[in-house]
Write the structure tokens for this entry.
Amino acid sequence: MNAQAFKTLVTRELWEHRSLVWAPVVTAALLVIGTLLSAQGTGSMQINLDGNDSSFFATLSTDPNVNSQLFGIWTSSLIVPQAFVGLLVIFFYLLDCLYAERKDRSILFWKSLPVSDESTVLSKGLTALIVVPAWVWLLSLVSGLLVFGIVAVKVSGTPLAPLGDFHAAVWLTSQLVLLQNLFLAALWYAPVVGYLLVASAFAPRSPLVWTILPPVLLVTAEKIVFNTSHIAGFISHRLRGFFDHLGGLMTRDGEQLSMPDVVAQIDAAYRGLSAAGILGELDLWLGLPAAAALFWGAARLRRWRDAV
């Protein structure tokens, strides 16, 4: 299949499942509007510094390294709400994409075209793994700049003014790190996408039930027969393993930290923005052939399954 035909298949997915495009757009718009309408430019991070928050912002003003790292952290975090919505729409898209075409019998039309089942399934998988995440990243880049501009204006002339300092090199680096993370997430979650495509292609009814039921039965059977939970651990690791390689601020509400502790945590969180450490996980590379097998299985099921 040539590149133009494959591009057409991906365009078809975005045309038929418009929530993939518009749900992240609406989320980005709400984020910008919410920032614009907020009474003050405060964020969700609250740190207790021995009762003296002003010293923290004094450090921001005098220490460009801390200032730039905190800038990188909070601007990068603006992708979170859009990524969360993107994950939701991708999940339901994958459950529906192969099931729906059997249900409405549009599969008969698509099978009449000179397009293989493998190409069709691959286009759906890459839409979920690459196209939509890249769209979310692009939206977060634009909306993040807008949110930063609004916050910078709001905090100007206040003790929070250092939060309005723009660091071009840090911003560019953090955006590239986010893009890298999306690629790494695509590699890590490729088997999950393959499994959801198999469930969508196989399910005679209710793809969600057919997605959840097999793991639940396997976990329950293992617990009853062997009194172990290896399958549950495996599933949990595959679902959250990517996020285990991302750092974050570990401060708990009400916890008292000294200034050096806060600076150290900011440094650790900034360095933890990248999930590149996941490349050293054997599970990442073992998951790729598993994903290829699941994609192949979904293509076979699409060929053999009758309309619902």
In short: Residues 39-51, 249-254 have pLDDT under 50 and may be disordered.
